[in-house]
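Researcher: Structure for this, please.
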Amino acid sequence: MPVKLTITLEMGPGKTTILEQAVDKDFYRCLNFQVPTVHHRTVASINVTITGEGVSMSKKTKILIDRPAFIHIIQTDKPIYKPGQKARLYKVVELQDPNSIRIA
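Model: Predicted structure, token format:
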């Protein structure tokens, strides 16, 4: 007999449903989901609720969401310089699509 599985992400007053599905015994699945962007470290909660015939179970786990790290990489035109030489610096930029595939 299937039960209802609900997984939600709670951040502050907001609540986002990650999964809501009727599942059978021995259900197993890995989920990918988009974590909201934050500007500072934020504590959120993942809430898993299973509801069946007259029975309900719930488990809440706190998680830490950290802001994205911005890294600046500068490349030089050669690895070693002699005194008095001018260093030419270049910014290294890489663009990726949402699937992390390099596009530029």
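Researcher: Any notable elements?
Model: The domain at 3-65 is CATH 2.60.40 (Immunoglobulin-like). The chain has a mean pLDDT of 88.
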